[in-house]
Amino acid sequence: MKNFGIDVDPREVGLDAQRLQRIDTHFRRYVDDGRLAGWQVMVSRHGKVAHLTSYGLADREANRAVETDTLWRIYSMTKPITSVAAMMLWEQGAFELSDPVSRWLPEFAQPRVYVAGPAARPITVPATEPIRVWHLLTHTAGLTYGFHRVNVTDELYRLRGFETDAPDGFDLAACVRAWAELPLAFQPGAEWNYSVATDVLGRLVEVVSGQTLDAFFAERIFGPLGMTDTAFWCSEDRQARLAALYTPSSGPTRAVRADALSKKVTRPPAWLSGGGGLVSTTRDYTRFTWMLLNGGELEGARLLSPRTLHYMTRNHLPGGADLKAFGRPLFAETRYDGVGFGLGFGVVVDPVAYRTLTSVGEYHWGGMASTGFWVDPEEDMTVVFMTQLLPSSTYPLRSQLRQLVYQALID
Prior knowledge:
Beta-lactamase, globular, 8-stranded antiparallel β-sheet, alpha+beta
């Protein structure tokens, strides 16, 4: 198993060590002025770690430093893992991407679409086509999130108890049944909207595989990849490594502890969220990115074929559109300009429109607590960034990290 530390002189993989230090200099300011409690970043190229830095505190109140084995809530960085799980089943012939999901989730047999009216009396019409597996993987199903607070359908989710969590006592199956009873925000396939689609996809994985989502992940993904610290909750023996969660404040510390949310991952969850439920380490998630970059295989463990990974990380939006043209201008863990969407990943289609130094075909996603990763096949590089500040829209951490990483490339 690869030792998790800096294992190559940056110059040997085309990176300038002094320029890499600019990453640390820049992000230290976030800790020194109180905007972040602490962070960790790892840059690898050609399969070797060239830069690994931790700074600040995992738990400011306990004065506990960020360590290489610190556990982080990765929230929506769970989504690419769920998408990989689904495509592993697809490779076995379990379903086609064009199949209606109602074949396995009959609650979606007759979806209706919101067209007008207030939340108290919504007017709906029948969907013109079924929700298909492809719609779930691409966030084009018409589902939404309650926290968007833009469309009436968002309000309907909140009225049913779905904002950033689920009603008490709901397991994943109950969540999916409840979402199926709510109207869609648009006709399936008509738009892109960041949503609970990946959670529904996780339920599809359960039904098709006959395993709970946590069992499937552990047996088919985490075990083979050596992701020993990734799970849906943080057991008591690991809680001393768990980073605290913070939210921004206007006070002198600029970030305050969010204990109510922090404690949710210290006990087994009522529902297994394939859209945002995992806790992981930088080491573990880096191993996941290495598997992606290596065409679905890591150290002899093959999860997917190279052709499947290539297919997943192409832009699947109709006509090659970016999210600005095809998506709703709502919160998502990516920019909209110059970014398309594949099967579980944002995909860069135009770095100029993206206004960020990167490569065409780079794919990525992030988490609600400001974590993020990307994989760049052209540069043979992966980057993982961990911190715990909610929401991730507070500061432009990901775009700043990109410009600081790419300016260090010198070959």
